[in-house]
Amino acid sequence: MTDAIEAVQVVPSPNLAATGAPPYAVGATISLQEQQFRTLKNGDMFGVFDLTGSISDGGTEGLYNRDTRHLSRFDLRIGGGRPILLSSTLRDDNGSLTCDLTNPDLSIGDKVVLEHDTIHIRRSRFLINATCFERMAVRNFSASPQLLRLELFFDSDFADLFEVRGTPREHRGTRLPTEITETGVVLGYLGLDDRKRYTRIRFDPAPTTLEPNRAVFDLMLQPHERALIFFEITCHDGTFPIRGVRENFMLSMIEARRWMRANSAQAAAIASSNEVFNEAIRRSICDLYMLITQKPTGLYPYAGIPWFSAPFGRDALITAMQTLWLDPSIARGVLSYLAENQATEVDAAADAEPGKILHEVRHGEMALLGEVPFAHYYGSVDSTPLFVMLAGAYVERTHDDTTARRLWPHLEAAIAWIDNYGDRDGDGFVEYYRATENGLANQGWKDSWDSVFHADGTLAKGSIALCEVQGYVYAARRAMALIGRRLGHADVATVQDQKAEALRVAFEASFWCEEIGTYALALDGEKKPCRVQTSNAGQVLLSGIASPDRAARVTEGLMASRFFTGWGVRTVATTEARYNPMAYHNGSVWPHDNAMMGMGLSRYGHTAAVAKIFHGIFDAALYIELRRLPELFCGFARRRGQGPTFYPVACSPQAWAATALPALLQACLGISFDPAERSVTFNKPTLPDFLDEVTLYNLMPGLGPDKISVVLRRVGTEVAMNVIARSGDVHVLMRS
Fold it and tell me: How far apart are CA 510 and CA 132, in angstroms?
């Protein structure tokens, strides 16, 4: 994820302050790698469960809705003991979690009255409509009747998500008395924001005993008899369902699966000759659609679980860009939501200025009270040019002039922000600074407090102009010109093309560092270049601002061992003063960063380098549970017979990590679309050696019903193509 302040521990530590860290700095004390979790998400709700499906009291686990933990304990016992885990699996589409459990030896005194592995418990769980549904099936596999006692301990601390991550609070709201009803309990909390938050738990059948924090089910099961218990946990402030628990479970399960199918069915499908790659790409696509939330404005991918299950501007823009070839509706939804939430006035506390695009939105108590500045926060220097850049790519991909016209005033406002607030000193470069001490110190995607520095390791000071941001601005101006011409604003197009060319010339003169063979990480407040070799220069290539000869130099450096780990490209080269393979941004490997570099390398024709990155990132997925790429992993060099080293507090799943493999596949194949000609083009396609054949189903050159499916096969160093299905007048081209 992009926010250094948004990791597992956000603490105003004196020790961190002594290093120069801002008030909100990462101080991780517990590694998420020490525990295995299962995660589910739907809409604004997500759950983090242990492998048995339980939520232990305290820690990260919980059921969260709109940045509040509505369930902090949901712990199952059988005969007073913890059940034994048999297996814990997510559906392939992430739609539900199934946990198979059994009993331990159950004793009275020294006598075992029920041997282990006699009772089977299957917990099936899914989320929809701010509700967690569970069906527990309990079956007796002994040869005699068994009287079983199941206990469910539950509670809610109604903690704000930032509290769970470690931000201290001097004062909290009031826990309301627990209400016991005919079918369950209602837990309540009155926040300091004067909002009441409720968690309602319903049971079917009714428990034998029901207390404010415990439900007891006494079951008499004959040999091989099965009993079903249904739970329903609703976490919102509105009305509760009137249907029965069992009926609601079945109807909601159908609704949840239909929703998943309906949304993911829009995307082109990918299959290959490599079954492991098929697993990884299916997980990528399913993770993406699990993280997508349906907004009134359309589909919007939340950034990641657990800490970033919220709308983030930069993350969603990059996710949409990486999936534009698969499903343009994601980009349309992202652009529409961000346009609706574009800043219209100056608000220093939120780092907001007219025309600026969101960094993130939070709905929790602490954000609403201003204890953290993220209710609507705009402290991101790159979201605004990325917004215009994506709009141009979307219009070029779809020729959706209706959406372009609707977005045009917002695009004009974004360009105005770039010209006025983004470039305060008028030198042609966009810089960032934070308006208050509570905001992010660094406001590019590498927003750790120590991520922007000079060659000797000293931190850059003053308003900072990042190299990749200038590339984004260049691409934004070209995008504005493209859209302007389509909509009849020729004068705007001419001006933006002129400004883009002026920026390109100035960028080459100010950012290129011949002595290190790449572009400077940034210019500091005194316009001194940070002569540091970083992956930021690789992202510069995505925009097209770099000259071809210098793009080749950058590519050569990125493929060298100082950058390339065998698993991907590091954020910082090993030769640099602040290189640390375990640092968040100063030497780690980020899948999305590698995908963006791959897309840029493909633009300049360096397909062999793209294939090398693709191979490394895919190989990393081989060693990761569920083939799920995390937010990042450590930047240690690859060791024979061993997998990558994991980062302690990396989020997983993470939207832009999930879309890294599809983006790298597009970059390898050089896929582009021409809606006017109804054509799909493969420009100098290549396939890495782990893929002999790839099939792409339902590629759409635009938004209409026309689709085409093709097979691409590696033949030596070349790629051959066959069309296997066609709907409508669609053409396919191969350029070698």
Answer: 55
Tokens of 367: 């954000």
Residues 6+ apart with CB under 8 A from 299: 263, 292, 293, 329, 330, 332, 333, 334
Cα separation, 668 vs 436, in Å, equals 43
From residue 606, alpha-carbon distances to 277, 536, 599, 609, 668 in Å are 23, 17, 10, 6, 9
Whole-angstrom Cα distance, residue 431 to residue 416? 14
Q: Which domains does the chain have, with CATH numbers?
A: 37-261 (2.70.98.40), 266-669 (1.50.10.10), 682-735 (no CATH)
Minimal CA–CA distance to 361: which of 411, 317, 302, 447? 302
Q: How far is CA 323 from the centre of its chain?
A: 13
Q: How far apart are CA 299 and CA 124, in angstroms?
A: 27
Query: What whole-number distance in Å separates Cα of residue 333 and Cα of residue 316?
Result: 10
CA distance 380 to 383: 6
322 alpha carbon, distance to own chain's centre = 12
Pairing of strands 731-735, 679-683: parallel
**pTM score, two decimals?**
0.93
Distance (Å, rounded) from C-alpha 622 to C-alpha 381?
35
Q: Distances from the Cα of 72 to the Cαs of 55, 58, 736, in angstroms? A: 7, 7, 57
Q: Which two tokens stand for residue 242?
A: 């009137």
CA distance to 142, 230, 658, per residue, from 285 (Å): 42, 30, 7
pLDDT digits over 639-696, tens only?
999 999 999 889 999 999 999 999 999 999 999 999 999 999 999 999 999 999 999 9
Q: Do residues 520 and 511 make contact, with C-beta atoms less than 8 angstroms apart?
A: yes
Between the alpha carbon of residue 389 and those of residues 393, 546, 726, the distances in Å are 6, 16, 31
How many Å apart are CA 189 and CA 179, to the nearest integer? 12
Cα four-point dihedral sign 546, 549, 553, 556:
positive
281: left (phi over 0), alpha (psi -120 to 50) or beta: alpha
Q: Where are the beta strands (DSSP E) in 103-225?
A: 106-108, 111-114, 119-128, 131-140, 146-155, 174-180, 184-190, 196-204, 209-211, 214-221
Backbone angles phi, psi at 248, to 5 degrees: -65, -40
Q: Phi and psi of 277, rounded to 5°?
A: -60, -40
Instruction: List the Cα angle 369/375/380 in 5-degree steps.
Output: 135
Neighbours of 585 (CB within 10 A): 26
- As a whole number of angstroms, the distance between CA 263 and CA 281 comes to 17
Furthest C-alpha separation in the chain: 89
Nearest to 178 by CA among 193, 200, 150: 200
Q: What angle do CA 12, 15, 16 make, to 5 degrees?
A: 60
Q: Is the pLDDT of residue 305 over 80?
A: yes
The contacts of residue 263 (CB under 8 Å, 6+ apart) are 289, 292, 294, 299
Rounded Cα–Cα distance for residues 344 and 355 (Å): 6
DSSP states along 177-208: EEEE-SSEEEEEEE-TTS-EEEEEEEEESPPS
CA-to-CA distance for 115 and 111, rounded, in angstroms? 10
Q: Enumerate the β-bridge partners of residue 676.
A: none
pLDDT digits (tens, 9 = 90+) for 447-491: 999 999 999 999 999 899 999 999 999 999 999 999 999 999 999
**Separation between Cα atoms, residue 658 and residue 617, nearest integer Å:** 11
> Which of the 8 DSSP states describes residue 489?
-
**Residue 549 neighbours by CB under 8 Å, 6+ apart:** none
Strand ranges inside 627-692, DSSP E: 671-674, 679-683
- Tokens, residue 611: 């294939």
